Amino acid sequence: MFGLSVRFTLKDDAAADGFDALVAETLPLIRENEPGTLVYAVHTVEGKPLERIFYELYADRDAFDAHEEQPHVKRFLNARGAFLASVDVDVLSLLDAKGVQG
Known about the structure:
Keywords: Monooxygenase, Oxidoreductase. One of its GO terms (molecular function) is monooxygenase activity. This is Antibiotic biosynthesis monooxygenase. This protein is an alpha+beta fold. The protein has one domain: 2-Layer Sandwich (Alpha-Beta Plaits), CATH 3.30.70. It has 3 helices and 4 strands; from the N terminus they run βαββααβ. It has helices spanning 13-33, 61-69, 71-79, and strands spanning 2-10, 37-45, 48-58, 84-92. The protein has a 4-stranded antiparallel β-sheet with strand order 2-3-1-4. The N and C termini lie close together (7 Å). The mean pLDDT is 96.
């Protein structure tokens, strides 16, 4: 399996609203069109209203690569920059989990 943890810090409240709207447009398309995307979870952070954390888990690196090539993901990647102050990405290797077959 292949995973990512991504922390987005947004510019301001208006940027947070725009980013959340962009996520709301994108996530249903990920659900409907990406069988290799096993988990795509978007979180707010308590006490940090301008932060969002994504946890992404893919069947393998090929599934991640397929995700990155989707038109809805390309649109998200191109549009998100308008809302961001910073982004931090960690590539993860799944050691063990409940609810995920590895």
